[in-house]
């Protein structure tokens, strides 16, 4: 949820980081400006009955360029990835260092591009297979994100995000359907500190390993200046098919 203009003055630039959140955003970057969100630490643990997998991402970022009054284009990439998997049956450990795939997207706002009041839009995207498994997918993917947010009060914003993907198969070579939904509430704790509480349901129809995941997240965002913010989030799995824990932190900047 973007801060009220009064927090920095009516002439404050439009600054609306998407992170930290499982939820999407309909707020777009102003024309000619570049918004960057950059994670300095990202770790996920997936503890299953037969194995434990730890995944670290480094320098994960998304760059957002405003190209119209309510339109932005996006480039996202995870240039550094490290995966450690331990087989619980024989205690064998496998370590792999890989790069991730590139994500290209267009975010088109359909109402209130500053994210205030009732705001909604759409965000089609494609992923390009520049990385390798297990961090990259090995083939292209595509999807559509549909975010809707609404300011209930000056300090409380609620949102719902739906997503449908043609996601690369785990074993490579093809794609399958994946859908998710997120409900979230963002609270302005102070003029500069926001907290986000959210839940996600995700259904993945991968032919090799179909799964249904349930996740809950708690994120914090602190706006240091009108164009700089620090963020962090903890996401916990609520069922056995979900990763146990995901922690990340980083910063957002508007140029």
Name some characteristics of this structure.
255 residues, mainly beta, Porin, 12-stranded antiparallel barrel, disordered N terminus, FApF
Describe the overall structure:
It is a single chain. The chain is 0% helix and 62% strand. It is built from no helices and 15 strands. It starts with 33 loop residues before the first strand and ends with a strand. The chain is globular and about 60 Å long. Strands 1-3-4-7-8-9-10-11-12-13-14-15 form a twelve-stranded antiparallel beta barrel. It has one domain: monomeric porin ompg (Porin, Beta Barrel), CATH 2.40.160.40. By secondary structure, the chain is mainly beta.
Secondary structure layout:
Layout: E1 34-47, E2 51-58, E3 61-68, E4 71-77, E5 80-87, E6 93-98, E7 102-111, E8 118-128, E9 141-151, E10 156-168, E11 175-188, E12 193-204, E13 211-225, E14 228-237, E15 245-254
Antiparallel strand pairs: 1-2, 1-3, 1-15, 2-5, 3-4, 4-7, 5-6, 7-8, 8-9, 9-10, 10-11, 11-12, 12-13, 13-14, 14-15
